[in-house]
From TrEMBL:
It holds the Pfam family MerR_1. The keyword Zinc does not apply. The keyword Transmembrane helix does not apply. Residues 1-69 form the HTH merR-type domain. Keywords: DNA-binding. It comes from the Bacteria. This is MerR family transcriptional regulator. It comes from Nonomuraea rosea.
Length: 334
């Protein structure tokens, strides 16, 4: 079979077949009287074998070894090909993500594209300062793809950078909420906590609904941040959770402030005071926890809180009694 016929039947161009010949991969078995290459059935079978191995990503050098070296084993080479393919897919996926994010911003010209690329690169920098400047610039100078901001916020470990990212997300409107909601579904508690912290910065009813969902999170830190954020928004359902936070001693000042803000509503003041007292008298409550609960009563108006403090001023725990007495003195002076 002449080279033109082989090319048509195999799908391998005549030019490539000549290249295979020059490399010694496939040398036609014979020549015609006019000197044209003439391929046998075995030659054609070898061509198909070469193409099959090339489809796996093998170089022509490795193809030759695979077909001609009896001692050549595929396992190591296949493992290498798997690794290289994974690396290539990761690189292509990263490129696709970058292009999609640039497209989402709808740049007007190449200057905009270059500015967005620079911001994205800075956002991925190892320097916390560069990441923070990129987050701030995304609001003040050039638009940053919301998806990139969310991804950075959910992975950022530096407190200052995280704060800048949350600030930027809060000014991006509702666009980031759906992505942050996905973060609440992460199997990693730290990611869910960062998602809650970011959602808490967005003053929106949809954000409030997401925070309510986070109150049932299996991780206590996630629940704590959700309760604090909801308390600051005036959600009365968080009162028991806020009282728990005061007793636990982590973020207790923030929780007490949230309870104080809620207690400015007359209908809630006695309810909060009763909840604090119930927790104070709970069996097994530690001295430090009881003292924090007593302190939380300081900014709760109404008769229930005042009566509770009067009783606590005679508490068996001297630290609690002194704290209650001091608070009563301040309340009387007002």
């Amino acid at each position: 079979m002449l080279i033109g016929d082989v090319a048509r039947r195999s799908g391998v161009s005549a030019r490539m077949l000549r290249h295979y010949d020059s490399l010694g991969l496939v040398r036609p078995t014979g020549r015609t009287g006019a000197g044209y290459r003439e391929y046998s059935g075995d030659d054609i079978q070898r061509i198909f074998q070469i193409e099959s191995l090339r489809s796996l990503g093998l170089s022509l050098r490795d193809v030759r070894r695979a077909l001609d070296d009896p001692g050549f084993t595929p396992s190591e080479l296949v493992d290498t090909l798997i690794r290289q393919t994974r690396e290539r897919i990761a690189a292509e996926t990263e490129l696709l993500t970058r292009l999609r994010r640039i497209d989402a911003v709808e740049p007007a010209g190449w200057e905009d594209v270059l500015q967005i690329v620079a911001l994205l690169q800075a956002l991925g920098s190892k320097s916390a300062g560069k990441r923070q400047r990129a987050a701030l610039s995304s609001v003040e100078e050039a638009p940053m793809p919301v998806e990139a901001l969310v991804e950075a916020a959910l992975s950022e470990t530096d407190a200052n950078v995280a704060g800048a990212l949350r600030w930027a997300l809060a000014r991006s409107g509702e666009d980031g909420l759906a992505l942050l909601a996905d973060g609440l579904g992460s199997p990693v508690a730290e990611v869910r906590k960062r998602a809650v912290q970011s959602i808490a910065e967005i003053p929106d009813s949809a954000a409030t609904a997401l925070l309510r969902d986070a109150l049932t999170d299996p991780d206590i830190a996630v629940r704590r941040y959700a309760a604090l954020a909801l308390g600051a928004r005036g959600v009365a359902d968080t009162i028991p959770a806020l009282i728990d936070i005061v007793a636990e001693g982590t973020n207790d000042v923030d929780a007490a402030d949230a309870l104080s803000a809620l207690a400015s509503r007359p209908a809630l003041a006695d309810r909060i005071a009763t909840g604090l007292v119930d927790r104070l008298t709970h069996d097994g409550a530690e001295s430090a926890a009881r003292r924090r609960l007593t302190q939380a009563l300081a900014d709760i108006p109404g008769g229930t809180a005042s009566r509770a403090l009067a009783e606590l001023s005679h508490d068996e725990d001297r630290a609690v009694a002194l704290t209650a007495t001091y608070i009563l003195g301040i309340r009387d002076a007002r």
